[in-house]
Amino acid sequence: MSFSKDVKIELLTGSEETADTAFAFLSGLLHGAGEIEKSAQGLKAYIVTDLNELYQKVNNIVHALYGDYLELEIEDDYVINKTTYYRITFPVSIAQSVLLDAGIIYLQDGGYQLNYGVDSNIVASNEEKIAFLRGAFLGCGTSSIRLSEAENVKTSSGYHLVLSSLSHEFLTDTAGLLSEFGIFSKLVERKNLYVLYLKEAEAIKDFLALMGANQSVLALSNEMIRREKRNQINREVNCINANISKTVDASMRQIDAINTIISTIGLDSLEDELQEVAMLRLANPEESLEGLLNLSTISLSKSGLNHRLKKLIRIADELK
After folding, report:
1. What is the dihedral angle through the alpha carbons of 112, 114, 115, 117, rounded to the nearest 10 degrees?
2. Can you give the pTM of this predicted structure?
3. 170 partner at 20 to 30 Å CA-CA among 145, 239, 263, 315?
4. pLDDT tens digits, 33-47
5. How confident is residue 23, by pLDDT bands cut at 50, 70 and 90?
6. What's domain 3-212's architecture?
7. Rg (alpha carbons) of the chain, rounded to whole number
8. Where in the chain is the domain with CATH 3.10.28.10?
9. Element holding 71 (H helix, E strand)
């Protein structure tokens, strides 16, 4: 199961909407995943979701508020990319009342008009704002975050959480609500769709905590620790590999120089201190300078040993 679905399941099972927050929750949900249809019988309202667990929560809220029950349907048209989508249907008898009470529509000149933004009366208190955000995320929120199955298994990089909608006004107002809680997001347009996104892990954690998804906050925090530990190990391994490569390259140059000297003037023509260093390197081609010193009785510092090896290279260059 994806991280975003884990978050949604936690929100559905771990939070209860009160009489004060129920309309705000429905408003966010309908803005995020609602559809409205006008028929001869009156207005019809639907919620389209890939989360069948959402039905029970919404049904309980609607029954408590209006005394009626919702319908849950699955249609072939709602199977996309092997994901099954569900249609939660509001009865015609209460659909208009729900839409009015949730601030989705308003009456004007004997008819109704769509309210594309967030009705300020629906989100008057902080509790209502949080309930609205919870409903909005359940309706149109998703995340690309993947949790590691093991510490040494790399997951996708970065942290992204997005809310997508056709309504610019809805997401603009949602961004405003988030900012009131110190959570700052960005709104962009992608292929006729508006996307409100958070891409900083700390901002995502704050949003999850605000909605009440505390277990998901803990899971994300653990993921951040695992990724940082994995990145630190990778940096250390890369540093070690770079040092090994550097040591090998230097050793090959030194051995090549020594072999040039042997094949031309011979090691016996060198000073005793250079002969000693040359024999030490030939006998230990893979050792670092520190390793050579540990294997020998030469009384030298690393810089002193390096100076003599460089001198061998200069002699070989002159011979070439």
Report:
1. 180
2. 0.74
3. 145
4. 999 998 888 889 999
5. very high
6. Roll (3.10)
7. 34
8. 3-212
9. strand 71-80
